[in-house]
Design brief:
Blueprint: H1 4-17, H2 22-26, E1 35-36, E2 39-40, E3 42-43, H3 54-67, H4 77-97, E4 105-108, H5 111-126, E5 132-136, H6 145-154, E6 157-161, H7 171-177, E7 182-188, H8 200-208, E8 214-217, H9 229-232, E9 236-240, E10 251-255, H10 257-262, E11 273-276, E12 281-283, H11 297-313, H12 315-334, E13 339-342, E14 351-356, H13 361-369, E15 373-374, E16 376-378, H14 383-389, E17 394-398, H15 405-421
Helix pairs in contact: 3-11, 4-11, 5-6, 12-15, 13-15
The protein binds ligand 7TS.
Ligand 7TS binds at residues 47-48, 110-112, 140, 142-143, 188, 192, 217, 219-220, 240, 376, 380-381.
C-alpha cells in the first residue's frame, strides 16, 4: 500500500481540487487554444496520444539549451547534471506507480517496447514448447503480436479469454483456461477501443494461486486511474509517456526485482555491461542491464515533469472528472438516433466507441474534423475486437482531464450534421 503521508497528500489534493478548474488547466496546454478549419480545436483523441502541458515542452527546450550531455559516463558538470535529472525522473515514476524500488523501473520507448522486452527476455528464457500464454479478446495488437512472435520462436500456444456483448471478460472462461501448462498471463487494464476497465487485481490473484506471472498493459490506464503496482501485485506493468502528457518515444516497464534479475538482457550495447572481453561479458546491475545505448534522456526528464503535473492535479480528481465526461457522452450519444455505442461494460473509463447506421466510421471522422473535432476512427489496432462485434471499425471519442461537457455537445452537434449529410 501507499505510505500514509502520500494518502494524506492525495486527500488534500482531492479536497482543494475537486471539481477541477478546467479553464485554468487548459491554459497550460498551448495546443488546445488552436483553431482547426477555423473552428476551436476539440481534441477527443487522447487514447491515441495526449497533449502536453507547457511545463513538459519547456523541459525539453531547457534540457537541450542548458543540460545536454550523455549520462552515466562523464565526470564533467553537464554529464553529472543530466545523469542526476535522468535518475530523478526514474524516482518520480517509481513513486507514481508505487514501485518498491527505483531499480524496478526500466526506461523503454513505450508500452510496445516494454511488452516486446518481456516476451523476448522473460518469455524466451522461461516459456517452452507446449506452454500456454493467456491474453484477452480485447488486447491491442501490441499485446498480441509480441506473444505470437514468441510462440513461433519457442513453440508455445496463445490462449484468449473471451468477452460478452458488453465488452466484459468472462472470468469463468479465464478460470477454465488456467492450467498446469499456463506459464504467463498478459492483460490490458483499460481497453483502448471499448473503454472497459478489467478486473486486473482479480486476474492477477487467480494466476498467482498457480504461480503464474502477470503483465499488465497500462498504456491506457496510467493516465486515467490511480495505479499501485504493489497493491495490484502485478509482475510487470508497461506504459507510454506520450499518453500521460509526456513526450513520444519514451515509456517505462516496471518489473519485480527478482524477475528482472532472473532475465537475460534484451539488447546489447553500451551501459548495460559490467565488463567486456572477447571471451566473456558480464552485465550491469538493474535497471541498466535493460537500458543498452544512449537513451532518450530529454524524454525521460520531460516524462518526469509530466508525472509531476498529473500528480499535482491528483489521479482521484482526474478519474472523477473523466467519469463525469464518460457518463455524459454515453447519455448524449445514446439519446441520438442512429448511434450505437460499442463497449457497454459496467466499469468503464475515458473511451466511448460508437457506430452510426449505414455510415462508415472514416466518413464520420472526416466530417467532424471539418468542425475542428479530432476523434479516431478505424479498428484502433484491435482487429479481433472489431471481429467480435461484427463491425469493420468504430468512431472513438477518448477523453483527458482537460476535456469538457461542452466539447461533447460540440461532438454531438457535428454527428447530427453527419447524419444530415448522409440523409440518415
Ligand atoms: N496497449 C494499449 C491498450 C494501447 O491502447 C496502445 C496504443 C498500446 C498498447 C501501444 O502503445 P504505444 O505507445 O507503444 O504505441 N493505443 C493507441 C490507440 O488507441 N490509438 O493509437 C494508439
Amino acid at each position: 500500500m501507499r505510505p500514509s503521508s502520500e494518502i494524506i497528500t492525495k486527500e488534500v489534493e482531492r479536497t482543494i481540487r475537486t471539481p477541477l478548474n478546467i479553464a485554468r488547466i487548459r491554459e497550460d496546454f498551448p495546443i488546445l487554444a488552436q483553431r482547426v478549419h477555423g473552428k476551436p480545436l476539440v481534441y477527443l483523441d487522447n487514447a491515441a496520444t495526449s497533449q502536453k502541458p507547457q511545463a513538459v515542452i519547456d523541459s525539453l527546450a531547457r534540457y537541450y539549451s542548458s543540460q545536454n550531455a550523455n549520462i552515466h559516463r562523464g565526470v564533467h558538470t553537464l554529464s553529472e547534471l543530466a545523469t542526476y535529472e535522468y535518475e530523478k525522473a526514474r524516482g518520480k515514476i517509481k513513486l507514481f506507480l508505487n514501485a518498491s524500488d527505483s531499480r524496478e523501473i526500466i526506461f523503454v520507448r513505450g508500452a510496445t517496447e516494454g511488452i516486446n522486452l518481456v516476451a523476448q527476455s522473460y518469455g524466451k528464457k522461461f516459456i517452452k514448447a507446449g506452454d500456454e500464454i493467456i491474453i484477452s479478446a480485447m488486447e491491442h495488437h501490441s499485446n498480441i503480436v509480441p506473444w505470437q512472435l514468441l510462440c513461433e520462436q519457442v513453440g508455445s500456444v496463445l490462449r484468449v479469454i473471451p468477452m460478452n456483448d458488453d465488452g466484459e471478460l468472462l472470468m469463468d472462461e479465464y478460470d477454465k483456461l488456467l492450467n498446469s501448462k499456463t506459464k504467463f498471463v498478459s492483460i490490458v487494464y483499460l481497453s483502448n477501443s471499448l473503454g472497459t476497465i478489467n478486473p486486473v487485481k482479480d486476474i492477477i490473484t487467480r494466476a498467482h494461486k498457480r504461480g503464474i506471472p502477470v503483465l499488465v498493459d497500462g498504456a491506457q490506464s496510467t493516465s486515467h486511474l490511480l495505479v499501485d503496482v504493489q497493491d495490484l501485485d502485478c509482475d510487470f506493468y508497461v506504459f507510454s509517456g506520450h499518453k500521460v502528457f509526456g513526450p513520444t518515444g519514451i515509456g517505462a516497464l516496471y518489473g519485480k526485482t527478482a524477475l528482472l534479475e532472473s532475465m537475460p538482457p534484451y539488447q546489447g550495447g553500451g551501459d548495460m555491461i559490467s565488463s567486456v572481453t572477447f571471451e566473456k561479458t558480464t552485465y550491469n546491475a538493474l535497471p541498466y542491464k535493460f537500458e543498452a545505448g544512449t537513451p532518450n534522456i530529454a524524454g525521460v526528464i520531460a516524462l518526469g515533469v509530466a508525472i509531476d503535473y498529473v500528480r499535482a492535479i491528483g489521479m482521484d480528481a482526474i478519474a472523477a472528472h473523466e467519469r463525469e465526461l464518460v457518463n455524459y457522452a454515453t447519455e448524449r450519444l445514446s439519446a441520438t438516433d442512429g448511434i450505437r455505442i460499442i463497449g457497454t461494460a459496467k466499469e468503464k473509463a475515458s473511451v466511448v466507441s460508437f457506430v452510426m447506421e449505414n455510415i462508415h466510421a472514416h466518413d464520420i471522422g472526416t466530417i467532424v474534423d471539418r468542425e475542428g473535432i479530432a476523434i479516431r476512427t478505424g479498428h484502433h489496432c484491435t482487429q479481433p475486437v472489431m471481429k467480435r462485434f461484427g463491425i469493420p471499425a468504430t468512431a472513438r471519442a477518448s477523453f483527458a482531464f482537460y476535456n469538457t461537457t461542452h466539447e461533447i455537445d460540440e461532438l454531438v452537434k457535428a454527428l447530427v450534421k453527419v447524419k444530415e449529410i448522409f440523409g440518415a
